[in-house]
Each structure stands twice: as structure tokens, then as C-alpha cells.
Amino acid sequence: MVLKTLWGESPKTTQLLNRLFGTQGQRGTIFFSDAYLLDPHATDRAWCSMDGVRMDPKTGRPVETAKHDYLFAYGEQLAFKFQMDIQDIGESDRTALALFAHLLQDLQNGDIPLGGEKTSGFGWVKAQVTESVWLTADPDGITRKLFADQSLARDGLWYRLTLKGQAATDHLARLRALEPLTTTTAPIAKTPPKAMAGFISHRAFGGYCGTLAVEAQVLTPLHIQESGEPSFKAQLADGPVNGWDLFAMAGSEAALRPASTLRVYALPSRSLKGMVRHLYSIASDSAQPSADLSHLNPIDRLFGWVGQGQNQAIMGRLAFSFAEFAAPELAWFKIPYPYTGWSFANRQWTHQAGLAVPMHQIAKTWRLFPHAPLAPLVQRLDDFQPDTAQASYLRAVLPGARARFTIRFWNLEEQELQRLIWCIVLEPKLAHKLGKHRHVGFGSLRLQILPDSFLIDWDARYTSQPEREGHLPLAVSDWLKPAVIAHYAELQTALNAESL
User: Fold this and answer.
1) Are strands 62-73 and 313-315 parallel, antiparallel or unpaired?
2) Largest CB tally within 10 Å, which of 62, 144, 272, 370?
3) Confidence at residue 42, expressed as pLDDT on a 0 to 100 scale
4) Residue 500: inside a domain
5) pTM for the full model?
């Protein structure tokens, strides 16, 4: 993707890729080993779980037939080690070595993901070069150009140079400087690459690419249920009762979870992605389902789509991370059910027996929950102290808590980025809703895009020193364009949080 971005789909691109990775009838230059876990012992507590449930956009209720359960590995102790061998390097391989060094730097910076569900927070890793070994039969030639005056030690038939730690990392900068990967033809496209069928392709980078650093501030108590079994249980006369903790980076078995004081509480990536997707579908007026890859509605073009038949699926162009809280304050709450009859209007809660829960819909297609303080039926508890089975007992993060996450994006059109940024930051009097029991006041939060967000200048990224010169500042105010927002007036009413 990098070479096709810089050089286009040219013979030069094909030749270099074949030289590095091989092709039919031609052996590649790089050989990869498997990656082995450094400490394979006591991994039980490294496993985490997360639920993924699709929400019905009209009702805001979960679609139980569209539920996914994820089991994934997490933690600083999950370090793997692998080796890359590069053979038969000659004078003609200067560009190949420079490309290899740039890609290693991308891996070190956490920009190359592994595995599935990359757009939902999984697979983003960081690498560290621990050792570099150079073996040659000729201490002159390309060796001098790569290592200058560093001395090589005789090792049988070979001359050997071993660099460890920071010295190995620093040498990558020398390799990157061998030959900058400058564009060779026209400037990099300002619009994303498109396939013949009309959808935006992933074969190269173009349009707008970058990372949004986002901070979430909790406005009303917020609860996203932990995955797996409940952390707390009780048996009452009228039946068993479960006490649900806030979602944390922990396993599905309560016995294997760390103590509450040691848990890493977070907003799940899929919950954040679903929240933004729901709002983007309204703002882009994506009510009409996509027919096929040649006729995608705006929401499926950006977030990805799976249709029927062969070659009828495409990955999204956004990747959401988990949002970890920093020292959040939590509290227990009791919510009796059912809670029909309660409604919030004119900045106050009222109760009318038998009244169905009111539903605020936009264009009779999308439901949004109004922002409100906690309803009077909600009780805050000192601890998990159930007194009836006819209630939900949960632990929620309290207002004021903050969590940070990132949204990586690539190949966006100008209007897509404008609409995405508006759907994240909204406007000063507006806010988002997330989590359970939204109708009775839970789950209001506000998002802010932080100054360390950036756009990527692909040409500068692989030609300049230091590499951060490839990061262009992203001024949020320049991208807030209400004109691209469908149902704008209705969204301003539905998302209004002045009552909080």
C-alpha cells in the first residue's frame, strides 16, 4: 500500500515488492520466523472477553440474533519474539533496504495491525528491535555504506557485526536515509483510490488519512455491562440476583478477574464504534439499505459492509480503539423494573402509570434517547445490597470520569471527514448517549478531539527526518461543516444536553 501510494501501480513497485517478498519463480529476500510468546506460563489472566450486540436503530434495543462474543489476549506481558532474515543483499538493494527500514519503523510505532477485527480495536501492536546481526564475506562494498567505520569481527568464513538495543534501533535511521521513498510521478492523489465498481479501494492510500485522539467525559452515570458471568451474585427469597460491574479488560470468568481496585475499566471499542456509526447513519441519511458493492449507502461505504454472495464484502476505513479510564470513581445503582410510565420533558421527570416508554425517532428510522438526569426511581447504593429480584443492580462510572481512545482513518473523502468530525465533537450544547438504561438518565457523555490528532502527509512521512514531519495538524474548527449533516435541526433537538 505504501509503494502504490508513493509510486503508483507501476513496474517499479512490482519489481521492488517481488525482490523483498518473492513471486512465482523468484525467491524473496526476507524470511520470517513464527512469533513465540516470551513467557508462556500463567497466561490464564491474560484473556479478556467482550460482547458485541447489534442494536436495532429504530428501537434502540439489542438484536439477540446478531450477537458476537469475543475472547482476546491483552496485557503488557503478552510480548512475542520473532526473527527476520535478509539474504543476498547487494549494491542494487539500497531502495529495498530503505523500504524495509521504513516498514520496521511503522511496526515500531504501532501502525501495522495483525489479525482480524482491526477496525474494532484488535490487533494493533508495537514492536521493538532488540538485535541486528550482519554477516558478510566482504567487509567492503555495501557493508561500508551501511555501517561506515564500525569494525567487524572475524567469525569463521564471515565477518560479523552485532548491534543490540538502542544501537540496533538507531541503525534503522541510517538505513532509512539510504534512499528516501520520494514520489516518482504525479503528486499523491487528493482523492481516495476507487475500484472499477465504484467503491473506495484499500489497495493504496489517498484522500484524507490520519488519527483522531479523542477524550470522553462522562456527564451522567454510565454503565456498559462486563462480559461473561457477573462479578457479584446473591440469592434472595424471590429469586437469584446478579450484580454487574462496569466493563473492564478482564476475562469472562469471575474467579479469574483481578480485584475491582486493580481492574482496567474501559469503554469497549465496539460500543464506541456503534455509537458513532448510529449517529453517522442519521447525519448521512443512510436509510436505504445497500444493494451491492457498486451501490453502497454512505454509512456502509465508511464503516464496512457484508452482503450476500461472493465478493460482496468490504472492510471499513475507520479503526476504533478501547477507551481506558484513568482512576474512575464508581458507584452501585438499583433500577427497579419495569420502568414504564416514566418520561422526561420540560426538564423534569413525571410518572403516569401504564404509559409506555416514549420513543424519539428521526425520520421514523432512528431512535435517540433524550439527555436527562437520573430518574427518581433510580437509587444509589453504598454497595451491592440487593433487596428484591425485580431490579437491575449495576456498578456505573460517575460523572467527571475521563477516558481516551483513538480513531484511525484512511482514504476518506472531504465530506466524509467533515461529517465524521461533527458526529464526534457535535456542538457545545449537544452530547452522546452510550450504554445501558439510557432512558432513565444513564449514559450521557461528551467527546472532545485532542490537539495530538493529525493528518498524514504520505510523501513527507517516508522522505523527511524526523518522521513526525509527516504529521499535519488537524484544526477541528476547520472541519465542522453543518451543511453536510442531514437532519441537522432534528439532531440539535434530540442531542441537546442543557438539562444536565
Assistant:
1) unpaired
2) 272
3) 67
4) no
5) 0.93
Element containing residue 156 per DSSP (H, E): none
- The reported pLDDT for the residue numbered 181 is 80
Whether residues 409 and 338 fall in one domain: yes
- Rounded Cα gap, residues 256 and 442, in angstroms: 29
In a domain, 433, yes or no: yes
Expressed as residue numbers, the domain containing 126 is 2-37+74-176
* Residue 203: inside a domain: no
Q: What is the number of other CB atoms lying within 10 angstroms of the CB of residue 252? A: 18
Distance between CA 79 and CA 77 in Å, rounded?
6
Residue 192 DSSP class? -
Q: Which of 137, 139, 166 is nearest to 151 (CA)?
A: 139
Q: Is 499 inside any structural domain? A: no
Locate cell 456502509: which residue?
A: 300
Write out residues in the chain with pLDDT < 70, as ranges: 42-45, 183-189, 464-468
Q: Cα–Cα distances in Å, from 414 out to 187, 207, 221?
A: 18, 8, 35
Q: What is the pLDDT of residues 222-256, one digit of tens each?
A: 999 999 999 999 999 999 999 999 999 998 999 98
Cell of 105: 519503523
Which amino acid is located at 339 in the chain?
A: Y
At 44 the pLDDT is 67
